[in-house]
Amino acid sequence: MGNAARKPIIVGNWKLQKTIAQALELVTELKNALTQVRDVEVGVAPVFTAIASVAKRLEGTPIAVAGQDCYWEDAGAFTGEVSAPMLKDAGASHVIIGHSERRHLFGELDAAVNLKLKAALRTGLVPIVCVGETEKERDAGETMGRVGAQLDGALAGIEADAAGKIVIAYEPVWAIGTGRTATNAQAQEVHAFIRGRLRERVGAVAETMRIQYGGSVKPDNVAGLMAEPDIDGALVGGASLTADSFIKIVRFKRT
Ligand code: PGA
What we know:
Blueprint: E1 9-13, H1 20-34, E2 41-45, H2 48-57, E3 63-67, H3 84-90, E4 94-97, H4 100-105, H5 110-123, E5 126-131, H6 135-139, H7 143-155, H8 160-163, E6 167-170, H9 184-202, E7 211-214, H10 222-226, E8 233-236, H11 243-250
Parallel strand pairs: 1-2, 1-8, 2-3, 3-4, 4-5, 5-6, 6-7, 7-8
Helix pairs in contact: 1-2, 1-11, 5-7, 7-9
């Protein structure tokens, strides 16, 4: 890992999985195993309906709770949406924004990601902004162009002092849920590009911003990824659904 100013951040993205009872069972195991973890920021992102119960169970522990999305208005006639202040009210401190499933399955555009990011920042939630290219874009040599455009879209109008709070997650779409992780070098190449683009946009604060890798992160590949200078954490889907594998990932240094 490149920089002592950047505390690694590892978050489990549960997606549309786990009832409240199943969520509580999992976080109880995590809580017991990870109470002492102070050198890594750890979080879980349950479905909206489980957030309040999970946050309550994790009170007083270092494990944070994240929403998987949020709307950009705080309240109003927006049937079906959940806002950043509502997430905070339920006990969340972080929120994932612009996940590739939101972008590709639900048509979410960079402009919406930007509004959601601003809502998270004004609410005081730590935003985790996801970017990443499809396989077609990678094969066509468009990886940096795509990721750069997503960053520019997401960060439009964001000043340097606010940017320091933002976490970026680089998740190549072809590596999500496929078992096909990017190689350490492939991931590092894009992470370095992202940090360079952040530096152009917000200056020196880019050195303090965490950039997570996501896409088939597992106990046996996390340490190699985390050893790269610009990889500061992981956004973990499938392997975050069982306590055993998520705990191993969080403890990557000791395995
Ligand atoms: P995965 O998902 O670890 O199952 O590939 C990662 C993500 O979508 O955040």
